[in-house]
Amino acid sequence: MAQAIQKIALNVGRDIPFNKLVLSQQNVRKTKAGVSIEELADDIARRGLLTSINVRAERDAEGKETGIYRIPAGGRRYRALKLLVDRKQLTKTTGVPCIISEGATLEAEDSLAENVKRTELLGSASQLSC
Known about the structure:
The longest helix is centred in the middle third of the chain and has 12 residues, at 75-86. The radius of gyration is 17 Å and the shape is globular. It is 25% helix and 24% strand. It has a five-stranded mixed sheet. The chain has helices at 37-47, 75-86, 107-116, and strands at residues 12-17, 21-23, 53-59, 65-73, 95-100. The chain has a single domain (20-114), classed as Conserved hypothetical protein from pyrococcus furiosus pfu- 392566-001, ParB domain (Alpha-Beta Complex), CATH 3.90.1530.30. Helix 1 crosses helix 2. The mean pLDDT is 81. With 130 residues, the chain is an alpha/beta fold.
């Protein structure tokens, strides 16, 4: 007898105003490695945000959503967007593409998965032709 394959549900994506986003203290990446925040901000200004930010709804003591979303994965992208807001290239209410995580995993697990599961590019940026 064949076993039923368990179906999965993907996390919901939606635009969340920048001023409703805050960095999570559970982000496992503590250093700013690779491309600088300024360079990333300039790239986002030029081509847009290419990767959504992972967020979790903040909940009050009663378990109700507060309207604020914590970012366990995507802190560099958030900092680059903040720089664009500071430069007045984006408004504080600009919608930011986010993936809303829910369920049994913890914020630190979301952060760790985003940083550990990625693979490095082969070659260098100078070898790429557009």
